[in-house]
Structures are given as C-alpha cells and as structure tokens.
Amino acid sequence: MKTPLFLVRIFILGCLISVPCFAQDVDFSFKDSNLTLEKRVDILVSQMTVDEMIGQLVNKAQELSRFEIPDYDWWNEALHGVARNGKATIFPQGIAIGATFDPDLAKRVATAISTEARAKYIISQKMGNHSKYAGLTFWTPNVNIFRDPRWGRGQETYGEDPYLMSKIGVAFVQGLQGDDPNYLKTAACAKHFAVHSGPENIRHEFNAVASKQDLAETYFPAFEALVKEAKVEGVMAAYNAVYGVPSAASPFLLQETLREDWKFDGYITSDCGAISGISNKLHYAKSPAEAAAVALLAGTNLNCGQTYKQLKKALEQGLVTEEIIAERTKQLFKTRFRLGIVGGDNNNPYTKIGSEHIHAEAHVKLAREAAQKSIVLLKNKNKVLPLSKDIKVPYLTGPFANSADMLMGSYYGVSSNLVTILEGITDAISLGSSLNYRSGALPFHKNINPKNWAPNVAAESDVTICVVGLTADREGEEVDAIASASVGDKVDLKLPENQINYVKEMIQKKKGPLVLVVASGSPISLEDIAEGCDAIVQIWYPGEQGGNAVADVLFGDISPSGHLPITFPKNVSQLPAYEDYSMQGRTYKYMKKEPMFPFGFGLTYSKTEFKNLSLSTSKLKKNHDLEVSIDVANVGDYDIDEVVQLYVNPVKVSGGIPLKSLKAFKRITLIKGESQTVKFKLTPEEFQVVNVAGEKVWRKGQYQVVVGNASPGNRSVELGAALPQEAVITLK
C-alpha cells in the first residue's frame, strides 16, 4: 500500500522547518576532542535550526536530544560557598575575604568551593537534577566597587579599593576555574558590568554617568584584571544604563571595552530580567523583540530571563540575522565545551571528584581559618583582649550572640554545622567559668516587654561580650532584605536604635569591661557608643565557623589580623549623595574628612614597628621599576600576622588625582621578637595616573611612598596603627 502523497508532503515540510528527520543525519564529530574548540563548536552549531539556537540563548537552555545534549540551567551562585544548592561549606562573606588582604587564602577558599561544586554536579547529574543552581557556571564574583557604605550588596564585594578588589578577585577566579590547560573546573563570572553599586530601589531604571576618569580609575580595573589576568569565563551585564545605554545593550561596554580592548573570549550574560528591562524599565527599546535584538547585537550571549524567546520575531522583522544568532550561540558552547559538560571525554580531570569532598573536614577547617583572618580589632583599651579562658563570670549577650542567620550573609549555602558565637565561646572557656547568656535585645525592633533583666547581668559579670549588628535580612539585595524599609540599602550607618540603647544601658551598668562584637557586611557608625566600649571587634558575616573563629580571637588562640577593606565614616553626613557616581569625597582615595576607622586599619595583640625604608632610586624614569624594601618587626608579646601596605601619594603634582593610592600589600607572619625585610617592586605602569579623558599617563612630579599597616594619616596612628615610614620620589 502506497503512502498518501499529502502525508509525504507533511513529512518533508516538517523536516524543512524544524529539525533533521533522522538522528543519523547528525555529525557527531563535535565530540572529537582532537579537534580545535572552534572547529567542534562550528560543527555543532552549524547543524542547529534557528529555534534550537534561540533555545540555547536563555539561562534555562533546552534539551537538544538529537545531539545527545541535555537541558542546562546557567544560573548558579558561589559567592562564599556553593549557594542555594543543598549542603556545602559556608565560608565568610566576600567583604570578609577582602578584609584578610590575602589573595592566597582567597584562592584556597575558591578552590574548595569549586571542588565541592564538581562533586555536587556529578551527583546531581546522576539523579537527573538539571535545575537552577545545580550547574557549573557560577555568577561569582561581584567586583563592583563598594563606593558607598549605604549599598546593601557591598557585602558581596571585596571592598572600596580597585587594587585590592583586583588582587582578591583574580585569585578567587583562579580558584574557581582551576589550572587545567584544557578544562575549566567551574566557570566564574565577573559581575555586574558596569558602574553598578546602588541604590537598590532604582537599579533597574538608573542611568550611571561617571566621568571617564572615574570609569578607568575606579569602576573598570577589577573587571579588566579578571579578564586579562584570570581569564574569567563570564561577564554579567548590569541592570542599569551607562551613558544612557542599558549595560546589556551597550556596544561601548560589551564590544569596544570587553571584546576589542580587553580581548575577552568568554560569554556575556545579562543580569536576571535585565533584557526585558531594556524596554519596560529603561524604555530604550520599544518592544521586547527590539530589546532582545539590541542586546544580542551589542554582544550579550545569554539572557537570564525569557526575552530572547522574542528573537524569532526579531528575525522576522529584520532586526537580527541568523548569522548573529549563531555567533552568540557558539560562544555559549565554547564555555560548555571548556567545562567538559558537552562533548566531554575521559581526559577531564574534574569528572572524578568524589562526594567525600562536600563539606569535608579540610574545608571546614579552612572556613575557620578564613574567618579568623578576616576579624578586625578596631579598639583594645588597656589591652582588655585577649580574655583569659579561666575568667570566672563571663556574660554573653546581644541579638546575634546565638544567631545562625548572622553567620551567613547573602547568597549563602546551607550547612549542618553552623557554629554560633554562643557555641564557640561555650567550647572555648574553662568548664569552671559561670558563663551567662541572654539575648537582651531584638535584632531590629525594640522589646515589647518593658521588663528586661539582661542589662543588669552586666553589673554582675567580670566581662560582658555583646554581639550586635545586622544580617542579610537588613542589608542585601532588594528582593531578599525583608527587614529593610529601603529595599536592602541603608539610609544611615547606625545600628538599629534598640541595639544602640541596649549597649548604652550596659555601658552604664557594666562591672567589668565591655567587648562589642559587630557583625555586618558594611561600615557601622559607632560614634554614640564607641567611647563607652573597652574593645570593639568587627566580624563581618563570618560563615559557618564564625562562632569558633570569634572565640579563637577573643580568648587569644589567634591574634586578630584582619584590616578594613573599606573606610568606616563617622556618620552618613560625611558621605556625598548616594545617587552621585562621582568618586570625589568617596573612599580613602578622595575622602578629606576624618573617618571613624580608616581603610586598611586593624590592630593585633602585639606591636609592629616599621624601619629602614629603602628605595632603589629617588628619581624614577618611566621605563624603570622601583624596588622598595622595609624592615618589619614584631616587638610585642604575641605571634601575629601583619598586613604590610604600600601607598603612593602625590606631593607636588597637579590636582585631580587620588590623595593616596594602595599600590602593593603583603600579608606576613611574625613570631614575637622577629623582624623581616619585606620587598616590593613597582612597575612604571603602577605609577601612572588616570587623566580626565580616562587615559593612563605618566605625570611628572614628587610623590610620597608610604609603608605601614593602615592607610596613611594621623587618624590611623591615633587609633593605634604603627608609625609608617615615608620617602619622597620624583617622577622624571
């Protein structure tokens, strides 16, 4: 019996408009790892239909069954541990890693995260879990500059300094991506490009207008370093516009800067919902199809969202071509091939990582080390700290003394081993100590019951340790900070009023010293209460081992060694307008007002001395390096880690450049009584400054080279930083 002609016609038509009709028509040579990456990608994508390609350009990429390629969701997070994807080690929040001034530690933390990620991915694949957060493309790290301490998401970053941000960020990306020449361990992503650091409530509609100088000097350097030095695999385009053009549709950002100037060869994703915002928020495009087209043409490969599903309509309207759709698709498959999750083979070393690495003992130990090294001692009147473990009547109080939420910060994973400060201190002190605990205050609202005995316990105690601060419920991303009336940002820098009042009560009633432990992801103004506290310790959001790390520091097992990665102003009146993206008056580089605690500041339990600063020349030509050496001595009674910081400050140079700039740092270990000679080499490029046109130039004149353990200034020394060493150099 013959097949009716109309059925034959339907079958042929279906083949022409959808997919090839027989699996054997597929050329599977794209799986041949002996071919170049470009050739393999060409072979694969050239066989795809337009519909198949468009289905790959959204974060939830569809299955391509005829190519034996499963569905894949690109959206994943790993800010300080594998996030939103079940059990994983929770490391300290990003700002805490910045406070360590330790790129090696950052790399080790990221290496542990990527190891756990690979192990979890293998298990997820076996059970058929291809969901969001289960993949290997991490939208981490956040290297937006923490330009204003009111920004709730600043906690995700490594601080306010472009140089520090670059060094920590590069190390973190290297740890995430691994060191195999052929395969990525995981794929990191630099976000949010560009000029993106609040306010949260207008981030979808905001047009950032920064000077060309600020762009090149402050907002771009970390992104450039991650692209050029770390070979970061992804870059996320921000929600906001820059110079009137949405970031995800900006040829200036994505083509001229990323692709042409920096030679970026990874994929570009939009922030989630940013492409729909091109039309419905920023009103740059008239329709979703037009928004999809301008983003695709500008260079955005991946749409976190659904708007790229309008590309078929954009194609029909002549807004895009099939060739440009194919080009954007190829870039995405480059990443998947580099990960070995498409067309993989047995040579990928990361496919054999076992489940024993998930929340492994070594990773938990590393989380504790990272938390220890991030803690910043801001005040230690009369050497109150460290405390004796045999103290008879210690009192632990405050709204976060027994809080697990406080440990986690934003973009967190989950762990079965969250150690609160109460638990850490309980384990640390003598079994003969009469430890008391009362929360004493609610996190963000005043007590409903006027009868509160908690302040009176301070009058009966040998020491009172009060844990105050914020959590990611109060500061963070707009959709997550549910205790914030300002959608995740801060309107001032103070603690909640009820916490301030509680501390004031204890200042009045305390018998022994009061140790204030502050948990936050951003600067907190303590001008109302700092004077009445005997010691102040900044712990950030310290991760799952936070309680143990805090106890280690308070009771002297470890000397505090963190340094502030951001300036702590006295109050919000010292800050420029939040919406103003000019750097004038911001950060230690341009702030002329005296802060509460300066950038780079942090005390130890010992005393550091700097001597014998030596420069290889006093007159530097622009084709020569400068070699700097300094003797650093521990003249106190404790073994310590110290962060040696080198700044270059203009003396007799025309204006418009930073007042001071961190150019090098090194974390060293000094046993008591030891002295080390620390050496730095500065290249001519590191002496260049950025002019008003955004160009790096060699500006002749006199500069100070200052080496110490905090940013230069009287305030640092007044608070207890070592006396820095200075020398003058002339650029010829």
The overall pLDDT, averaged over residues, is 95
Number of helices: 22
The CATH topology of the largest domain: TIM Barrel
Distance between the termini: 94 Å
Strand order of the largest sheet: 9-14-13-12-10-11
CATH superfamily grouping of the largest domain: Glycoside hydrolase, family 3, N-terminal domain
Characterization of the model:
This protein is an alpha/beta fold. It folds into 3 domains: 29-357, Glycoside hydrolase, family 3, N-terminal domain (TIM Barrel); 364-590, Glycoside hydrolase family 3 C-terminal domain (Rossmann fold, 3-Layer(aba) Sandwich), CATH 3.40.50.1700; 608-731, Immunoglobulins (Immunoglobulin-like), CATH 2.60.40.10. The protein is 28% helix and 17% strand. The strands form 7 sheets. It has a 6-stranded mixed beta sheet, covered by helices on one side. A 5-stranded mixed beta sheet has the order 16-24-23-18-19, with no helix packed on it. β21 and β22 form a beta hairpin. α5 (103-126) runs antiparallel to α14 (361-374). It is globular, with a radius of gyration of 27 Å. The termini are far apart. 55% of the residues are buried.
